[in-house]
DNA sequence: AAATCGGGCAACCGCGCGCAG
DNA sequence: CCTGCGCGCGGTTGCCCGATT
């Protein structure tokens, strides 16, 4: 499936770029700009796929790119944004001047995720691994559905009132950890920046509790650009979506049980379109309640870095 | 000194989305 | 409305190089 190759693979060079190729591409883009990438190889005299040219330019040749190591502040920002956005590397990279999505992605995969694991934090959900295991155990003891009932959903069923109540109570104790203090105990403490997603679960319950049709309450708050609602939505969404294993599974719950998880997805998509994610991120980062950069804790106080 | 291993990073691949015809 | 195309994204691969045995 998918679109056909953008170029004749038999006649294009692959593999590492040479200095000569770099010079040709740079010379072309500096005089003609980066318009139609498919025509760039031919015009620049390169036997490369246009896609390859674009990648080389954006990840390596583009002006103002930083090639030095990531700073402590950048590390913290990446972890914070990953907790909010997940693996949306281009959005994260947008907040890091001079960094590309590939840079951020590689740095996360090779360094930051390992750092988090070493601190006992799941790099996907940003929650303590011990809490995650406890959550999985709680889900596992849920009674099986009655005969003839719909197949079990991939996600917790939020309109199942007793189950929801128990789950909500449990998650009130759980938090999304966005910062790791290398010198502190692994368990989150009050000094660290934490994102509570139980708030969103509460919104979800209030908005469409036992049999309400749609998660409008939480979604509405998010669309207004409210930092607390938005942050809580993100935290809950990541937690459930990734525990389940794939984002596709988030929407695979029961019809009216989409609840928190689907509200999260809808909210993200709607906000991307309607208000621009950059603006949202800026608002969130400006709020000291959600990111220490606005005041409160400095990098040194957090002790980030190993 | 040679072989092996593992980390880091550049590059590739497949897919979704938006747009124009 | 449908189709094809270009772009951008996230996931993955594979090479390079330093560390270790």
Summarize the structure.
The protein has 14 helices and 2 strands; from the N terminus they run H-H-H-H-H-H-H-H-E-E-H-H-H-H-H-H. The protein has helices spanning 19-32, 40-44, 50-61, 72-85, 89-94, 101-118, 129-140, 161-171, 198-208, 216-223, 227-244, 259-274, 277-286, 299-302, and strands at 176-177, 194-195.
State the main characteristics.
306 residues; mainly alpha; Arc Repressor Mutant, subunit A; 14 helices; 1% strand; DNA-binding; transcription regulation; transcription cis-regulatory region binding; Myb_TF_plants; nucleus; Homeodomain-like_sf
Order of strands across the main sheet: 1-2
**Share in β-strands:** under 5%
Number of E-state strands: 2
SSE arrangement, N to C: HHHHHHHHEEHHHHHH
Task: Report the sheet with the most strands, covering strand number, pairing sense and barrel closure.
Answer: 2 strands, antiparallel
Helix-and-strand structural type:
mainly alpha
Subcellular location: Nucleus
Domain Myb-like: 9-61, 62-112
GO molecular function: transcription cis-regulatory region binding
Domain HTH myb-type: 9-61, 62-116
Q: What this model shows, in words?
A:
The protein has 14 helices and two strands. With about 300 residues, it is an all-alpha fold. It has two domains: about 10-60, Arc Repressor Mutant, subunit A; about 120-300, no CATH class. It has a two-stranded antiparallel sheet with strand order 1-2. Helix 8 packs antiparallel against helix 9 (about 200-210), helix 10 (about 215-225) runs parallel beside helix 12 (about 260-275) and helix 11 crosses helix 12 (about 260-275). Residues about 1-5, about 145-175, about 180-265 and about 290-305 have low confidence and may be disordered. The protein binds a DNA duplex (21 and 21 nucleotides) through helix 3 and helix 6.
């Amino acid at each position: 499936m998918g679109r056909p190759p953008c170029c004749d693979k038999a006649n294009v060079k692959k593999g590492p770029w040479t200095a000569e190729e770099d010079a040709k591409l740079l010379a072309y883009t500096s005089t003609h700009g980066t318009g139609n990438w498919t025509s760039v190889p031919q015009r620049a005299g390169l036997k490369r796929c246009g896609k390859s040219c674009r990648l080389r330019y954006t990840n390596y040749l583009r002006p103002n790119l930083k090639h030095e190591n990531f700073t402590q502040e950048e590390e913290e920002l990446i972890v914070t944004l990953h907790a909010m956005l997940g693996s949306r590397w281009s959005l994260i990279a947008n907040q890091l001047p001079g960094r590309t999505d590939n840079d951020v992605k590689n740095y996360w995969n090779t360094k930051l995720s390992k750092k988090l694991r070493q601190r006992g934090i799941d790099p996907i959900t940003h929650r303590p691994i011990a809490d995650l295991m406890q959550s999985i155990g709680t889900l596992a003891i849920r009674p099986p559905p009655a005969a003839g009932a719909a197949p079990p959903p991939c996600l917790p069923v939020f309109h199942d009132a007793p189950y929801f109540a128990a789950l909500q109570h449990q998650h009130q104790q759980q938090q999304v950890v966005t910062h790791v203090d290398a010198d502190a105990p692994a368990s989150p403490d009050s000094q660290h920046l934490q994102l509570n997603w139980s708030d969103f679960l509460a919104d979800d319950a209030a908005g469409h509790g036992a049999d309400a049709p749609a998660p409008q309450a939480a979604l509405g708050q998010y669309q207004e650009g409210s930092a607390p609602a938005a942050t809580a939505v993100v935290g809950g969404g990541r937690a459930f979506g990734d525990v389940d294993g794939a984002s596709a599974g988030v929407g695979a719950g029961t019809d009216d049980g989409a609840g928190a998880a689907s509200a999260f997805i809808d909210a993200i998509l709607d906000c991307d379109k309607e208000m621009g994610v950059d603006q949202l991120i800026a608002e969130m980062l400006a709020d000291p309640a959600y990111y220490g950069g606005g005041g409160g804790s400095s990098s040194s106080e957090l002790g980030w870095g190993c």
